[in-house]
């Protein structure tokens, strides 16, 4: 089906752009993590903890569909940077949960603002209705991916995942 070929190509191209959500960092040799930016994994992990609250490495691995060793390595970098801290698990035992620090919240907010600023430039000639429709279709696509993979992403009540 030609439409699926078109979608495959366009999704591949979207994946190419994820490293430069803000246009100010899209030059050659510049990637997320450059000049105080959060890299992709840090942004994803902090966003998930922000959405759900403190989580263990095992919970993060399950939620993101990743191996615990990968999440352990990624969260070690967050701990070293002071973006998360370990807390005792309220359910007891030796388990620890990772919580975002004030520094982590500030960096996450700054990253989200940079990404929104970049998107504002990219979509400056789109109508509000086009933006709403695009966001709805992306949410629908993501919700379907999440259902198929079994890893739902928590969404704010004002923006529920479409069925």
Helix and strand topology:
Blueprint: H1 2-17, H2 40-52, H3 57-64, H4 68-80, E1 84-88, E2 96-100, H5 102-122, H6 128-149
Antiparallel strand pairs: 1-2
Please give a handful of descriptors for the protein shown.
Arc Repressor Mutant, subunit A; 57% helix; mainly alpha; 163 residues
Q: Can you tell me the CATH class of the largest domain?
A: Mainly Alpha
Which sheet architecture does the biggest sheet show? 2 strands, antiparallel
Query: Which bin fits the share of residues in helices?
Result: 55-70%
Order of helices and strands: HHHHEEHH
CATH topology of the largest domain: Arc Repressor Mutant, subunit A
Structural shape: globular
* Overall residue-averaged pLDDT value: 84
> What percentage of amino acids are in beta strands?
5-15%
Distance between the termini: 24 Å
CATH architecture of the largest domain: Orthogonal Bundle
Care to describe what's here?
- A two-stranded antiparallel sheet has the order 1-2.
- With 163 residues, it is mostly helical.
- It is globular, with a radius of gyration of 17 Å.
- 57% of the residues lie in helices and 6% in strands.
- The protein has 2 domains: 110 residues, Orthogonal Bundle (Arc Repressor Mutant, subunit A); 37 residues, no CATH class.
- β1 and β2 form a beta hairpin.
- About 7% of the residues have low confidence.
- InterPro entries: ArsR-like_HTH, HTH-type_Bedaq_tolerance, HTH_MarR-typ, WH-like_DNA-bd_sf, WH_DNA-bd_sf.
- It comes from Streptomyces hoynatensis.
- GO terms for molecular function: DNA-binding transcription factor activity.
């Amino acid at each position: 089906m030609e439409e699926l070929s078109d979608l495959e190509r366009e999704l591949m191209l979207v994946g190419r752009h994820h490293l430069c959500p803000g246009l100010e960092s899209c030059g050659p040799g510049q990637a997320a993590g450059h000049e105080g930016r959060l890299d992709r994994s840090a942004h994803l992990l902090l966003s998930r903890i922000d959405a759900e609250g403190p989580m263990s490495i095992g919970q993060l691995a399950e939620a993101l569909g990743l191996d615990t060793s990968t999440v352990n390595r990624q969260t070690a970098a967050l701990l070293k940077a002071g973006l998360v801290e370990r807390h005792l698990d309220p359910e007891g035992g030796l388990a620890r949960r990772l919580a975002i620090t004030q520094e982590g919240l500030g960096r996450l907010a700054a990253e989200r603002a940079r990404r929104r600023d970049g998107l504002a430039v990219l979509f400056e000639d789109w109508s509000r209705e086009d933006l709403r429709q695009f966001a709805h279709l992306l949410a629908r696509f993501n919700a379907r991916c999440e259902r198929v993979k079994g890893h739902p992403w928590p969404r704010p009540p004002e923006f529920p995942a479409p069925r």
